[in-house]
Here is the input.
Amino acid sequence: NAGVMQNPRHLVRRRGQEARLRCSPMKGHSHVYWYRQLPEEGLKFMVYLQKENIIDESGMPKERFSAEFPKEGPSILRIQQVVRGDSAAYFCASSPTGTENYEQYFGPGTRLTVT
Amino acid sequence: GNSVTQMEGPVTLSEEAFLTINCTYTATGYPSLFWYVQYPGEGLQLLLKATKADDKGSNKGFEATYRKETTSFHLEKGSVQVSDSAVYFCALTRETSGSRLTFGEGTQLTVNP
Here is the structure.
């Protein structure tokens, strides 16, 4: 059973460009979470999605950031007009349900560098 | 709101030394508690968990006990190995927070031979 897959693993963007980060959850998992890890900091929750629904986006910056998890295909985290402060590691996690007793399985992360 | 506080790092130990990484939390009710480990360049892996008071999570020689009275979940290992060098994150989740994880800042552990 393949784990959570994220691509690309490394992404370099110039200021003002768009960044698209992809996450394919584990087979059978319908819940996806996105977290951001800024340099020298812990992970911070961004958004929680189920198929075709955003359940909780309270951790998402109000502007430039959006996320989706379509019926078919991977979950996408999109950052428009990137700035240097967006440089971070972005981790996706998936779980089979949203209940707290189920482990979240993490992908290897996408390391975004904004130049 | 929910929060997790870990002891500040980095922590440097010699092989076979005893390890303790402190973790305390603030949350209403009864959260589930976790320790995750992150090896260089990789994502997080669940190390152990406990879902109710007095539960002890254990895995690969690591242990942590859910202490409701002290709101703590300290990570311990009796004899560390060089391969245990990694960043360790304490985390919690509450059903009312939609199962999202709240993480501590992480503790970098380096074990020297």
User: Anything to note?
Assistant: The first strand of chain A starts at residue 5 and ends at 7. Chain A is about 0% helix and 50% strand.
